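[recover] target loaded
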C-alpha cells in the first residue's frame, strides 16, 4: 500500500517542474564544485557551488549508481576519487581503479559522439593526472567532494547539455554496414560504413548486452549471426537460434508500435532467410560484422529514430529481468531483482539501505529469488525510491526524526494542508523559521482551536477531506524496516491531535516553554542527557501511532517519564505534561492543568507535601549541593513511609531558621502542611505506578504555585 502511494506521490510531483522532485533518470545529489574545462581539455578553473556556509547544494544529476563496495562510476559527475583519481582526504593517496572506471564509462558513451562538449570532456579525462591536483589552490576543499563539469564560457553544466544525454541505455560499437530496407521489409541495399582502410565506424548505439554464452540480442543492431542468421566466416552455416532470438526481441517490443520504422523492421525480419545472403555482393564482408538498419529515404539510422529510442528506453530495465505482475502498478511486465537504495535514514548505512531485499533462502518462496518474492517493476521501484529520497531531505520539511525512526508524511494532492502536517509533526518552533507569515498565523490558529476542543472546519480554510500518509522507517544494517504506516483524512487527524493537545495541556513553569510542544521535544526530554540519539528505540513510533490512530497513550511513555525523573531528579514541564496526558487517558478521574487543592489522592497530596518541604529547605539554606529533591524524590515517590517522617523532622529546623528572619513563616508553613495532610494519619508503605505519576504531578503543580505566590508577594511589597 505505501509503495503505491509513494509512486503516486512521485508521479504527481514530477508533473510540477517547481516541486524539486528529480525527473526520470535523475537524482538530487549534494554537489560541491564544477570543474571548468576548455575545448582542448585543459582545466580552466574550479567553480565553487557551495553556499555561504560551505554547505553543498543539491542539484539534479544523472541518477546515482548503486555500488556499495563495488567500483562503479556515475555519469558526468562523481566524487573526487572517481573524477580526479584521488581518494579520501589525502591528496597523496591515488585511486587508479576508480578513475579508470570513470574514464572507461565516458569513453564508451562518447567515443562516437561528435559534440564539442563530449570531446572536451574526453580530452580532459585523457590528459588529467592525479599529481596535477597539487597545483590547484582548491586542492584541500576538492578532496572527498562531488564534482560536475562545465565548459568554459557556458552557463549550463555538461550533464544539462542535450547532446550529452547519452544515458545508461547508450553505448558504442564498431559498425561496418547498414542494411537499407523499404517499408515493405525488402532489402534495397547494403551501405558500407567503413573508412578507406576498411576500419569499422565507431557509432553510438543501444548499449550492448553482456551475453557470454546466453542468447541475448542487442536492440536495433547486432552481428550477422543475430541479424541475418549466418554464423562465423561461412555463409553456408546458418545460425537459427541467434536469428530467432533477435526476431523474438524485436517482435515483442515493436509489434504494438504505431511507427513506420518499426513496421518496416519487423517486415524485414519476417521476410529474411539466411540463404538470401548468397545473392548479395557484400556477403563475405557482412559475415562476422556488426550491422545497423536504415529506412530507405531517411537520413538517420533506425536506432536514432526518437520513437524507437523511446520504446527501447521504456523496456531497457526489463531486458534481463523476469516477467510478472507489479504489485505497485498492477501491470504485467519486467520485475526488478535488486531495488535501488534509500538514503537519509538516520542509523542506516551512509551509502543507503534497501526497503525491499531478499538475501536468504528462508525468505524465498516457490523457488523465486531475490526481489521476485515481492514483484515490483523497475519504473515503480525508481519512482518510490526517488519519492522517499525526496521526502527524507530536511529542506523539504516533510520528515521528522523521532529517536531512530525517520517519519515522512505527504498528502494525496497538492494543498496547503501538506505544510500544516509539518507543523503538527515538527512543532511550531520549526514553523516559525519559515518566511511565510500567513502559514505561521494559520498554524497558531489551528493549534489554539485544537487545544480548546473547537472543531476545525472549512471555515478555517482547512480542507478536512484531504488524505494524509505517514510512513515511519527504522534502520536495520543494509535494510530498512517499516515501523509505522497510517493513512486517514486530515479532519480525523486534527481531531486526534486536538485530543492529544488537550490531554497534554498543563501549567507552564517558565514563559519560554512551548505551549504546543512537538513530539521530538517531548521524546528528547525522556532520553538520557536529553539527546535525541538516546530516545528509546520503539517509543517514537508507539507514541505517534497512538496519536494518529486515536489509541491509548503507550504505557512505555508513562514509565519512561517516571524513570527519567528518578534518574535526573527533576520533574520538567514536558515530563509532567506526559504524565498528565497518560492519567487523563487511562484513569476515570483524569488530571488538572494546575494545582488541585481538592484532590484527595494520596500520591498527589504527598507530591504536594514534598514540594512544600523542599521549599522550606530552599528558604532556609538557599542553594545547596544536594537538595531535598535531588536526594529523596525517588524514594519519597515509591516508599513514602520510609522517607517522609524523617523529612518532616528535618523540616522543623528549616522552619525555625526561616521564622527568625520572617515572622509568621512557621504559621503559614504549618497551615499549608495541615491543609495537605488533612485526614492522612499514616504514610502509605508503597505507591502504585499510577500514584507515583500523581505524586510527580502534585509536586509539579505545588512547586509552580509556591513560586508564583512568592512572585506575587514580592510585587505587593
Amino acid at each position: 500500500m505505501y509503495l503505491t502511494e509513494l509512486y503516486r506521490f512521485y508521479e504527481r510531483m514530477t508533473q510540477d517542474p517547481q516541486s524539486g522532485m528529480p525527473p526520470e533518470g535523475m537524482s538530487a545529489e549534494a554537489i560541491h564544485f564544477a570543474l571548468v574545462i576548455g575545448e582542448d581539455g585543459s582545466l580552466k578553473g574550479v567553480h565553487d557551488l557551495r553556499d555561504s556556509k560551505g554547505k553543498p547544494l543539491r542539484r539534479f544529476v544523472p541518477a546515482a549508481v548503486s555500488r556499495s563496495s563495488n567500483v562503479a562510476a556515475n555519469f558526468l559527475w562523481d566524487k573526487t576519487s572517481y573524477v580526479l583519481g584521488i581518494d579520501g582526504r589525502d591528496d597523496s593517496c591515488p585511486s587508479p581503479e576508480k578513475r579508470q572506471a570513470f574514464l572507461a564509462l565516458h569513453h564508451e558513451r562518447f567515443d562516437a559522439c561528435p559534440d564539442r562538449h563530449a570531446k572536451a570532456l574526453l580530452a580532459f579525462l585523457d590528459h588529467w593526472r592525479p599529481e596535477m591536483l597539487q597545483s590547484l589552490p582548491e586542492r584541500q576543499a576538492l578532496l572527498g567532494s562531488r564534482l560536475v563539469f562545465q565548459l568554459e564560457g557556458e552557463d549550463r553544466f555538461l550533464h544539462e547539455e542535450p547532446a550529452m544525454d547519452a544515458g545508461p541505455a547508450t553505448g558504442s560499437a564498431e559498425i561496418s554496414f547498414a542494411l537499407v530496407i523499404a517499408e515493405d521489409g525488402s532489402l534495397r541495399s547494403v551501405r558500407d560504413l567503413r573508412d578507406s582502410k576498411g576500419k569499422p565506424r565507431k557509432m553510438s548505439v543501444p548499449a550492448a548486452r553482456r551475453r557470454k554464452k546466453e542468447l541475448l540480442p542487442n536492440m536495433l543492431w547486432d552481428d550477422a549471426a543475430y541479424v541475418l542468421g549466418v554464423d562465423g566466416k561461412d555463409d553456408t552455416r546458418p545460425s537459427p537460434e541467434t536469428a530467432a532470438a533477435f526476431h523474438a526481441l524485436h517482435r515483442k517490443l515493436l509489434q504494438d508500435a504505431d511507427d513506420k520504422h518499426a513496421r518496416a523492421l519487423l517486415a524485414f525480419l519476417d521476410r529474411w532467410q539466411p540463404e538470401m545472403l548468397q545473392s548479395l555482393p557484400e556477403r563475405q564482408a557482412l559475415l562476422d560484422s556488426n550491422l545497423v538498419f536504415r529506412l530507405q529515404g531517411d537520413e538517420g539510422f533506425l536506432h536514432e529514430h526518437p520513437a524507437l529510442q523511446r520504446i527501447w528506453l521504456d523496456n531497457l530495465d526489463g531486458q534481463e529481468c523476469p516477467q510478472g505482475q507489479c504489485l505497485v502498478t498492477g501491470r504485467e511486465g519486467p520485475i526488478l531483482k535488486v531495488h535501488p537504495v534509500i538514503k537519509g535514514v538516520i542509523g542506516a548505512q551512509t551509502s543507503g539501505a534497501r526497503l525491499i531485499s531478499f538475501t536468504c533462502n528462508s525468505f524465498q518462496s516457490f523457488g523465486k529469488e531475490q526481489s521476485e518474492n515481492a514483484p515490483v517493476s523497475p519504473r515503480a521501484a525508481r519512482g518510490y525510491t526517488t519519492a522517499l529520497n525526496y521526502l527524507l531531505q530536511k529542506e523539504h520539511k516533510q520528515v521528522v526524526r523521532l529517536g531512530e525512526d525517520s517519519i515522512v508524511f505527504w498528502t494525496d494532492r497538492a494543498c496547503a494542508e501538506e505544510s500544516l502536517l509539518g507543523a503538527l509533526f515538527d512543532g511550531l518552533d520549526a514553523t516559525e523559521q519559515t518566511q511565510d507569515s500567513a502559514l505561521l498565523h494559520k498554524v497558531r490558529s489551528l493549534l489554539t482551536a485544537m487545544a480548546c476542543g473547537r472543531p476545525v472546519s472549512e471555515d478555517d480554510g482547512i480542507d478536512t477531506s484531504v488524505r494524509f500518509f505517514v510512513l515511519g522507517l527504522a534502520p536495520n544494517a543494509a535494510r530498512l524496516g517499516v515501523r509505522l504506516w497510517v493513512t486517514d483524512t486530515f479532519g480525523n487527524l486534527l481531531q486526534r491531535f486536538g485530543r492529544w493537545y488537550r490531554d497534554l495541556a498543563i501549567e507552564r513553569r517558565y514563559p519560554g516553554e512551548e505551549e504546543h510542544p512537538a513530539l521530538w521535544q517531548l521524546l528528547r526530554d525522556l532520553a538520557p542527557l536529553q539527546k535525541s540519539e538516546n530516545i528509546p528505540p520503539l517509543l517514537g513510533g508507539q507514541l505517534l501511532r497512538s496519536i494518529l490512530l486515536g489509541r491509548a497513550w503507550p504505557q512505555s511513555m508513562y514509565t519512561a517519564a517516571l524513570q527519567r525523573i528518578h534518574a535526573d531528579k527533576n520533574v520538567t514541564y514536558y515530563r509532567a505534561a506526559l504524565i498528565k496526558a497518560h492519567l487523563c487517558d487511562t484513569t476515570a478521574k483524569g488530571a488538572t492543568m494546575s494545582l488541585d487543592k481538592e484532590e484527595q489522592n494520596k500520591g498527589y497530596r504527598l507530591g504536594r507535601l514534598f514540594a512544600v518541604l523542599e521549599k522550606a529547605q530552599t528558604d532556609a539554606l538557599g542553594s545547596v549541593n544536594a537538595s531535598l529533591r535531588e536526594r529523596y524524590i525517588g524514594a519519597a515517590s515509591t516508599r513514602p513511609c520510609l522517607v517522609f517522617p524523617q523529612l518532616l523532622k528535618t523540616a522543623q529546623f528549616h522552619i525555625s531558621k526561616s521564622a527568625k528572619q520572617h515572622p509568621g513563616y512557621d504559621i503559614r508553613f504549618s497551615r499549608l502542611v495541615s491543609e495537605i495532610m488533612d485526614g492522612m494519619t499514616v504514610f502509605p508503605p508503597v505507591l502504585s505506578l499510577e500514584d507515583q505519576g500523581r505524586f510527580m504531578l502534585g509536586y509539579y503543580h505545588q512547586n509552580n504555585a509556591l513560586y508564583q505566590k512568592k512572585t506575587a508577594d514580592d510585587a505587593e511589597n
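[recover] notes: Residues 711-717 have pLDDT under 50 and may be disordered.
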